[in-house]
Design goal:
Elements: H1 2-47, H2 52-77, H3 80-83, H4 87-113, H5 119-128, H6 131-179
Helix pairs in contact: 1-2, 1-4, 1-6, 2-4, 4-5, 4-6
């Protein structure tokens, strides 16, 4: 009875750690990759300032990437692992930061696409407007840290349950020897 219960609890804890914390780390890493793709699209738009067609194509890619990133942060905040942890707060910071970044950079990138700014001018102005994206990176770093803390707690829980399981099993063996 007790051994089975301890084994079941250990299995449930392992499942919880993998379902929530590992998933959280994967999701945060995906957001990080998307932000990097977003910045590449931004820089590609600026680099193409002298080529209207390519600048328009790159701006469209940037717009799609930023909207996809915003949608992903919204979707992730609705997951059970996000709602049960501080991860949801970090997702809100990331979402707000990406929205601010979009609002700050879109007019500038539109001017680049329309040929109203040279690449060098746009690069300087864009650099000044990147504080929001840096805030998103900080929130991602904090999310990773939170997930690692949660995983460490999960490991501790698993170790405690394994110790309890060993104790129960030793007790069962001891009782079996006494009964014989």
């Amino acid at each position: 009875g007790n051994g089975f219960y301890a084994l079941e609890q250990t299995g449930a804890t392992v499942e919880h750690v993998f379902d929530s914390h590992v998933q959280t780390l994967n999701q945060v890493n995906q957001l990080r990759v998307q932000i990097e793709q977003l910045q590449v699209a931004e820089k590609s738009t600026i680099i193409q300032a002298d080529n209207f067609n390519l600048a328009a194509k790159m701006l469209k890619h940037w717009e799609q990437t930023v909207e996809q990133l915003l949608a992903n942060t919204q979707d992730l905040s609705k997951t059970s692992s996000a709602q049960a942890t501080n991860y949801n707060q970090q997702l809100q910071v990331i979402h707000t930061s990406i929205s601010q970044y979009r609002d700050d950079l879109h007019p500038l990138l539109t001017q680049v696409k329309n040929g109203l700014l040279l690449a060098t001018e746009a690069g300087v102005e864009a650099e000044e407007k990147r504080t929001a994206i840096e805030a998103a990176y900080q929130a991602i770093a904090q999310s990773i840290e939170l997930a690692q803390i949660d995983m460490a707690q999960g490991r501790t829980d698993i170790a405690l349950q394994a110790t309890m399981l060993n104790t129960v099993m030793a007790s069962i063996v001891g009782l079996s020897i006494l009964i014989m």
